[in-house]
Amino acid sequence: MVKGHKVMIIDDDTGMRELLYSLLTRKGYEVTSAVGGEQALQLMAKSKPDLIILDFDMPGMHGITFLKRLRSFDTELPVIMLTAFGEEVLEHEAKKLGVNEFLRKGVGVELFIDSINRFVDPKRFTQPANPLKGFIMVVDDDPDICKMLKKFLSKKDYDVACVENAEKALAKIKERKPNLILLDINLPGMDGLTALKKFKEMDKNLGVIMISGNTEVDLAKEALKVGATDYIMKPFNMEYLELSVLTKIFLGES
Do residues 249 and 140 share a domain? Predict the structure, then answer.
């Protein structure tokens, strides 16, 4: 554990903040989160972070503007900036303002943790290992969704199996336990919530992320209450989906 090391997350994306908070606190860091630069500046005097994880593109105070404000009173505090592709020009400007490292959103969890350890706890730093792998089962009756998820996750070095209903999923789990299940809430035959309960009866620690085009809040709350680790809406934000999958598998094996 790395008790005593403090990390501040600055990101306007609630889902991203929650995932990073969960990941880092489970790894022993003391974490403060802020929705933007102004709030972060107000919190800094009290939280005294050892490292800042900063989103590049935020409404209100942009990441570059925050860096300029930060460097006006602290020139040494390490900053890891989260960026998307196509932002190389702004990255160059950020580097001049003292950003220590740039990470693409969706980077592997092991690489992410190693980057943090490198700056706040060098003794824990290890060279990046082989890509994180795991067995993921997608349960969805939409063949296009299954095809898209299998293609996307397979490129990330996961072993992916797709089944079209909960009954087949229950049978396959007995043959081979997945590290994670992506489960559609609306399925023919046994519905997703019933299937979730069945999965949890088989293994209460089995990670299940619900996927749905349904925006019903009560349905999402019920799934989380039953034991789902996340609830992701269609159409997918693929960066968030990848980070959610990575986090759930990584924490499940930690």
Answer: yes
